Amino acid sequence: MKSNGISGASPMTWLATAGLIVVVAVPFVFIILQGIFPQLGRGSLAAPLTHLPGLFDDTRLWRMGGNTVLLGLSVAILAALFAIPLALARALFKVPFALFWDVALLVPFMIPPYIATLGWIMTLQPRGYLQQLVGFNLSGFLFSLGGMTFVMALNTFPLVYFALSRTIEAVGSRYADVGRVFGASPWKSFWRITLPLSTPGLVASMLLVFSAAIEEYGTPAALGRRAGFDVLVTEIDLRVSDWPVDLPGASIFSLLLVLLSLAAFLVQRWILNRRSYVTTGSKPQHKEKRPLGKFSLPVLVLFAIVTFLATVLPLFAILSTALSKTISGGLAWNNLGLSNFSSISGNSAGALKALSNSFLLGISASLLTGLLGAVSAYVVVKTRFRGRNILDTMTVLPNALPGVVVAVGLILAWNFPGLPITPYNTPFILLLAYCCILLPQPVRYTTAALHQIGDNLEAAARVCGASAFVAFRRIILPLIAPSLVTSMLLVFAVATRELVASLLVAPVGMQTISVFIWRQFEQGSIGLGMAMAFVTIILTTLLPLCLIALLRRGGMVAE
Amino acid sequence: MTKSFLGAGLAVIASMFAAGTAHADITVYSAGPGSLIEKMAAGYTAKTGHKVEVFQATTGKIMARIEAEAANPVVDVLISASWDTATDFAGRGWLVSYTSPNAEKVPAALKTETAVAQGVSALGIVWNPNSGTPKPAEWEDLAKPEYKDLVNLPDPAQSGASFELVAALQAAKGWDLFKGLHANGAAVAGANAEALNPVLQGAKAAVFGAVDYISLSGKAKGESVEVIFPASGTVVAPRPAMILKWSKQQDEAKQFIDYMLSDEGQKLVADTYLMPARSDVKANRPLMSDLKVMTIDSASVYSKRKETLAEFNGIFKAGQ
User: Fold this and answer.
1) Each residue's pLDDT tens digit, A409-465
2) Structure confidence at residue B65 as a pLDDT band (50, 70, 90)
3) Phi, psi of B117 (to 5 degrees)
4) Cα distance between the two ends of chain A
5) Has UniProt tagged this entry with the keyword Isomerase (chain B) (predicted)?
6) What average pLDDT does range B258-272 have in this prediction?
């Protein structure tokens, strides 16, 4: 889109710049410095670049880079295949029980990927729940690239589903109707009008899935290693957590990941910039949805199958494990017990404190990233600020940084000797880590929404005497609110369960939910870990739903 | 809307600041089990009045944190799951020399000038009696056809103790043992807990060389597992506790070591099914004197770590 935006938004520009420097640039710069100066952790700049030649001779770097791209593409494509038919049906037609399906498909967001993967393993492995119930196992499929793609796509496809159905709703069927009036067939108007106009939502969300897949740790670590399929993230983690620790090597591997994600980002930009996607140019539109007619049943069956695989089955595995007195007892009535849940309510090992810590952090992170993300996206899309390309790049960088690398960057940056005040060893370091890792979510969602808002609305407000800030608050913010709120809920869900960075930077004496769960697994108390996971999933699903209900009443979010 | 967001955000952050900045007297980084270090910290505080802040993770994660913090370290006492850490840190000159008066009954092998064991774990065969397989007695048994595709190995690259077991068995029996395991479909499966989980559910029958205390406490909770220590010998993993030389609370840190080795501290160790470091403290599990311990020359074993791991990976990655 050619930017013919409104200049003079300088307070917002400053806010975006300052926020992005603190949240993204500082840890990133320290990772690059660590890549150059291997002794950085000890405060020394000695022997720069001495470790590089050995790394590039290593063929594993390239093989793992290739594996990472392959996995990312497979997951993005499979997630889109799951999501597109559902999103189209949801956005254009009156799907029976639509709200129920939305809630059910929200749940996979709330299931931490490492928990879902463990659930799948316990279901599909030999003598797993599937075999205990129906007599066969699918362990050969699970521990393969196909199984890994399947599990990861089921975990991430709601990203595409929600983004795409919102975008298509915003496009509405009105433009397609215009096409129909001019004589196009339903299919033709869909292919030529609705689909092209939905491209920003689809591409942005597939990019998010791709990025999430290439930086996901839990699933490749649990499934990929058995399949002999190594990716960059597992190697980075090995270099960081395998003594002797190789931080310089890890930062070089991370920079390769950054390049991959930047490439994906450039592809997205190229697609978005080819033409204008402005669809909101004047008064709000009526969104008329059509009845499904004879397709009701097939569409319902499709929703049911996907919901079963993405939501019901993982929840079943988690709950059965949590309710088992012993794992070796299996699915038997006499093995059923509530002891794991009573341990949690009895605050065993600090369970309740971990819950409240994570919820506070999740709420703070979603508020901060929502504010910073909306402002940054606005500055990038709607102003002519010279450095906006740099800001745009900074907002996408964290996509490429695995949690473990962000954590190391934050420690290097904020534990540097001589800082007068530092967030290190306080909960703020976790907040910074979550904000850095999750900032791309609000940015991507609001960018896609902003691309669809014509500049004339804001210009009209400015002509009528509103300041840049008032115009943003009164015109832009309400229009992007549905996308922004969706992305903030996503931030909340992911921040409350983030594992890898939390393990490394959690201040001493502080547990988050994921750290609690991980410690239970580490000590062989799988049931207690799964019980905590189940409680978390329920809470993180209910909390945003209540919030949405409240906001709807207040008219903040569109139906 | 922006204003209310900002206001809410600031309020939340302010409340966290108030909650999270209690000052700690000493900071302990400890490898698992988490319940042990938490009880030990609570007991120490009750005894001495000094507060303890605990960071608990795997040895690897703790090392990463210490490495990243090296310019401005905060840890006073470190408890690792691998004796190699003590050797390595002593070599770097990072440790304080201290011999606790309570360390008198700790065998010489479990203490140096700068480190002393908190407790000891041993590696064994962890076997699920419900797996329909005969009870194994020796390491070689797991290469037999009865255990085809039913054995997990912890990854020696991720667990120091597993690495020492591989090195010791390779020295005693050669690589053929591991070639036999691979030919029999044994799988290398992550760190200790990852290797154990499939055995609990029955997907696998046994773990070749698992850390014993997790399975022993699982058995006490009613899980169907047994820990078998082969008569030909196994390796033990003493868990060294060290005081870091940059600690500004060395007296409190020394008192922590004293408490760890006191009757009370050693009982906490025994309660988590680890072997107490002190030979005069009882435990409800097999002790060092009940096991045949294979000794390794750690200097030469660790100097060949890369080669040993490469050889091991060569065997298990082949044909995958």
Assistant:
1) 888 888 777 777 888 888 999 999 999 999 988 988 888 788 878 778 888 888 888
2) confident
3) -75, 140
4) 28
5) no
6) 95
List the end-to-end C-alpha distance of chain B, in Å, as a whole number: 56
What is residue A287's predicted lDDT score, i.e. its pLDDT? Answer: 57
Residue of A nearest to B66 (CA): A41
**What is the three-class DSSP state of A419?**
coil
CB contact under 8 A, A370 and B217: no
Tell me: do B13 and B48 sit in the same domain: yes
Indicate the pairing of strand B151-153 with strand B275-276: unpaired
Q: Which residues of B are annotated as a binding site for Fe cation?
A: 213
Question: Is B309 an 8 Å CB contact of chain A?
Answer: no
Domain definitions of chain A by residue range? 10-37+49-281+294-331+342-553
Taking CB atoms and an 8 Å limit, are A508 and B160 in contact across chains? Answer: no
The Cα–Cα gap between A303 and A314 comes to 16
Does the model's pTM come out above 0.90? no
Q: B148, B104, B136: which is closest to B266 by C-alpha? A: B104
Q: Would you mind telling me the total number of residues written for chain A in this entry?
A: 559
Task: Quickly list DSSP for A189-254.
Answer: HIIIIIHHHHHHHHHHHHHHHHHHHHH--HHIIIIIHHHT---HHHHHHHHHHSSSP-HHHHHHHH
User: Distance (Å) from the C-alpha of residue A509 to the closest C-alpha of chain B?
Assistant: 5
The residue among A368, A476, A519, A523 with the most chain B CBs within 10 A of its CB, best to mutate, is: A523
Record: contact A426-B21, CB cut-off 8 A = yes
Three-class DSSP category at B116 = strand
Cross-strand partners of B206: B127, B151
Supply the ipTM of this predicted assembly: 0.79
Instruction: State whether B143 and B250 are in the same domain.
Output: no
For the record, the structure tokens of A38 come out as 């291997």
Task: Quickly name the fold that domain A10-37+49-281+294-331+342-553 has.
Answer: MetI-like fold (1.10.3720)
Strand B187-188 with B26-30, pairing: unpaired
The closest alpha carbon to B20, from A516, A415, A425, A432, belongs to A425
